[in-house]
Write a structure and sequence with these properties.
Distance between the termini: 46 Å
Radius of gyration: 17 Å
Helix content: 40-55%
Mean pLDDT: 85
Strand content: under 5%
Order of helices and strands: HHHH
């Protein structure tokens, strides 16, 4: 159907997946919420091809059209950093 549009969904700070995951790890660690098996504990296992690709992913997404058409007032959490902090703040009592 030609009336449907597709939008790239992204925040205002395009970053490699590894950077986002490292920031999430830091937040969980600082809040003493890391699961018992951290990535360091799993480092000896072999990664699947998909996991290898995800770790080296270099994609960048332009969110200009999404913001113009869907969110003219902007994003509530402009970057992954604010978004992940908000997720943690909302859920940390449940996750303890």
């Amino acid at each position: 159907d030609s009336s449907w549009r597709r939008y790239n969904l992204a925040d205002d700070n395009p970053a490699p997946r590894s950077e986002v995951m490292a920031f999430g790890h830091e937040l969980l660690d600082a809040s003493n919420l890391l699961p018992s098996q951290t990535p360091q504990m799993l480092s000896g296992r072999r990664l699947s091809e998909r996991e290898k690709r995800r770790r080296t992913d270099r994609k960048r997404v332009d969110n200009k059209l999404m913001k113009e058409c869907l969110l003219p007032n902007g994003l509530l959490y402009p970057t992954y950093r604010e978004g992940l902090k908000a997720v943690l703040d909302i859920n940390k009592d449940k996750w303890r």
